[in-house]
């Protein structure tokens, strides 16, 4: 039986492997520096950023799961740990016994306000300062094209992971 796989050409393979290595190293380095400098994990930071972007600092659990692109069970564990540290709280929805909100606490707001400037400086130092303004625009364009492709090719009904809760593209922000 003949293979119908359309293998990567050498240039494609080199570009793909470079992207995967860069993404893994950059994500790992950002997470380590964030943890060391602020005590927040990358997951904590992602949740806090999503809540900071939300009206009134609150999102339904499912909306938050979509915003950070996690499974509901993973988010539930994270929210429990963050609530124990006073960063967020889980509030039941009035009139919807099955629903709950995750709400940013004052402690969570203070934590993200302390962490964001250093994290942005690290993103700039490790990634953005290595690029010209034209390359930054190109990176943004490439990222949007791939995100659009992922949306078009989604196999998960109702998947809106690269869009905000109102269906519009999420604003650029310093998340991992």
Structure description:
This protein is mainly α. The chain has a domain at 30-126: Arc Repressor Mutant, subunit A (Orthogonal Bundle). Helix content is 59%, strand content 10%. The protein contains 6 helices and 3 strands, in the order H-H-E-H-H-E-E-H-H. The chain has helices spanning 10-38, 42-53, 61-68, 72-84, 106-126, 133-152, and strands at 58-60, 88-93, 96-104. The chain has a 3-stranded antiparallel sheet with strand order 1-3-2. Helix 1 packs across helix 5 (106-126). The chain starts with 9 loop residues before the first helix and ends in a 24-residue tail after the last helix. Residues 157-175 have low confidence and may be disordered.
Secondary structure layout:
Elements: H1 10-38, H2 42-53, E1 58-60, H3 61-68, H4 72-84, E2 88-93, E3 96-104, H5 106-126, H6 133-152
Helix pairs in contact: 1-5, 2-5
CATH topology of the domain at 30-126: Arc Repressor Mutant, subunit A
Q: Which percent band covers the strand fraction?
A: 5-15%
Return the string of H and E elements. Answer: HHEHHEEHH
Largest sheet: 3 strands, antiparallel
The helix-and-strand class reads mainly alpha
Q: Given the structure, what is the number of helices?
A: 6
Name the poorly predicted regions.
Answer: 157-175
Chain-averaged pLDDT:
88
Q: Please give the number of β-strands.
A: 3
Structural key phrases:
176 residues; mainly alpha; Arc Repressor Mutant, subunit A; 3-stranded antiparallel sheet; 6 helices; 3 strands; 10% strand; disordered C terminus
